[in-house]
Amino acid sequence: MIVLSATVVQIFCLIQGVVIVYDITNPDSFSHISKWIHDISANCADGNDKPVLMILGNKCDLDDERRIHTETASQAAQEFDTIFAEVSARTGRGIDEAFDELVDRMVRLHEQRDSFNFTDSSIMLRDHTISAEPHGCKC
């Protein structure tokens, strides 16, 4: 794990989305994905503040030189609960769709986080407040 300064950790935790890019023709670049995801998770103060992650396989225009199969990367993305896409920076293939998905997930996550405002004695769900009963639930 990388040890980061307090300032870097504070900035790190403000990040809303992270794109981890690997080269489909270079297995070494793919092997570092789990380390990056671990470092991101370890340096976020709270699991609720975890950014949206996307694993992005680049150079899909070089399919004849492919060393990382789509299925392998897709399975890794599922295991890490991240978005997965393959793109070509050279041709532009898949880039718009990948970033549209990333932004869509970031917006949905932001809306979910804003829907809940936790305080010591109540939970506010947008415009409705549910007070916590001091003597237990009255279900």
UniProtKB/TrEMBL annotation:
CDD domains in alphabetical order: Rab
PROSITE patterns with a match to the protein in the record: RAB, RAS
Signal peptide segment: 1-17
Annotated SUPFAM superfamilies: P-loop containing nucleoside triphosphate hydrolases
Entry keyword GTP-binding: yes
Keywords attached to this entry: GTP-binding, Nucleotide-binding, Signal
GO molecular function: GTP binding; GTPase activity
Residues spanning the membrane: none
Keyword Nucleotide-binding: yes
InterPro entries in the cross-refs: P-loop_NTPase, Rab, Small_GTPase
The name this protein goes by in its record: Ras-related protein Rab-13
Species this protein is from: Geodia barretti
Organism lineage: Eukaryota, Metazoa, Porifera, Demospongiae, Heteroscleromorpha
